[in-house]
């Protein structure tokens, strides 16, 4: 079974050539990466990228995907971590589909790794319901197809809201499974937008506090900041999971780009976006 695109024609253009041009324009945008690709300081382990409509978040996303494109060798499997914006499907859901379609083609799901994860992590379920209408992982895929030389396999995982202890337990178990894979074959793509419905100056201030927790690799501090103040970072669960997964490793985190939808289009309140990378350090 193939998972059909849910937001093609809404979050991004639905015709292949127009979509490629749209992504190209995100890279070339004044807020995009252009020729200023972040230099590698170690093997790329993971990154955070936004998941809004490409006209708003695509330029910020280009910074993370350009760094992945420059990785040598490029990853062959992308482990996708995203939030659930709906109540459909399992709470912790690994895609049961054979592949995910986008206008740029089909990406095969690494079902061997998916089954290995479900067998090892009791909270995970093979499930398509959680992914059927969810956009947070889908919008990463055309960027990946555009950026990588070869079509990667994907492992889509959706996270519902839960306590820090529960997320940390699930994430640590996932991390043990992923650690057994060949070094360099995987890259974790964590999908999140940041502040929502917020004036521009306040978004910059609030999101700087959040990004500091992330780049300090402070999983509990990040979770507690968002949860205690009810901040509107929709990727609270997958980012927390990512930070827990990275704890056993020597990791350096860098913010590549931050901007808001208000930097793209003049409006009073909007959404914050960040591209953050995590590289092997030593």
Topology, element by element:
Layout: E1 2-3, H1 16-28, E2 44-49, H2 54-69, E3 77-83, E4 92-94, E5 99-102, E6 105-108, H3 111-120, E7 125-126, H4 129-132, H5 140-147, E8 153-159, H6 164-179, E9 186-191, E10 198-199, H7 200-215, H8 219-229, H9 236-246, E11 251-260, H10 261-264, E12 269-270, E13 272-280
Parallel strand pairs: 1-5, 2-9, 3-8, 3-9, 4-7
Antiparallel strand pairs: 2-13, 4-8, 5-6, 10-12, 11-13
Helix pairs in contact: 1-2, 3-6, 6-9, 8-9
Can you walk through the features of this model?
By secondary structure, the protein is of the alpha/beta class. It has one domain: 3-Layer(aba) Sandwich (Protocatechuate 4,5-dioxygenase, Chain B), CATH 3.40.830. It is 39% helix and 23% strand. An eight-stranded mixed β-sheet has the order 7-4-8-3-9-2-13-11, with helices on both faces. A three-stranded mixed β-sheet has the order 1-5-6. The longest helix is centred in the first third of the chain and has 16 residues. The mean pLDDT is 95.
Provide key terms for this protein.
single chain, Protocatechuate 4,5-dioxygenase, Chain B, about 280 residues, 10 helices, 8-stranded mixed β-sheet, alpha/beta
């Amino acid at each position: 079974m193939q998972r059909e695109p849910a937001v093609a024609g809404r979050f991004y253009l639905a015709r292949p050539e127009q979509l490629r041009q749209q992504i190209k324009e995100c890279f070339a945008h004044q807020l995009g990466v252009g020729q200023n690709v972040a230099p590698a300081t170690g093997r790329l382990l993971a990154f955070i990228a936004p998941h809004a409509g490409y006209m708003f978040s695509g330029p910020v996303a280009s910074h993370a995907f350009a760094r992945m494109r420059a990785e040598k060798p490029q990853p062959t499997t992308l482990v996708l971590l995203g939030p659930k914006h709906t109540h459909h499907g399992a709470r912790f859901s690994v895609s049961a589909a054979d592949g995910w379609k986008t206008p740029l083609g089909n990406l095969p799901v690494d079902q061997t790794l998916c089954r290995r994860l479900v067998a090892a992590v009791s909270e995970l379920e093979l499930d398509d319901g959680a992914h059927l209408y969810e956009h947070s992982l889908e919008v990463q895929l055309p960027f990946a197809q555009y950026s990588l030389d070869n079509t990667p396999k994907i492992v889509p995982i959706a996270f519902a809201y839960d306590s820090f202890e529960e997320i940390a337990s699930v994430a640590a178990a996932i991390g043990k499974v992923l650690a057994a894979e060949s070094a360099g074959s995987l890259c974790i793509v964590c999908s999140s937008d940041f502040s929502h419905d917020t004036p521009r100056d306040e978004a910059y201030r609030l999101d700087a506090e959040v990004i500091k927790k992330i780049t300090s690799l402070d999983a509990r501090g990040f979770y507690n900041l968002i949860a205690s103040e009810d901040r509107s970072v929709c990727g609270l669960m997958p980012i927390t999971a990512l930070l827990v997964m990275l704890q056993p490793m020597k990791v350096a985190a860098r913010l590549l780009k931050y901007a808001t939808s208000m930097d793209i289009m003049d409006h009073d309140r909007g959404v914050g976006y960040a591209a953050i990378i995590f590289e092997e350090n030593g």
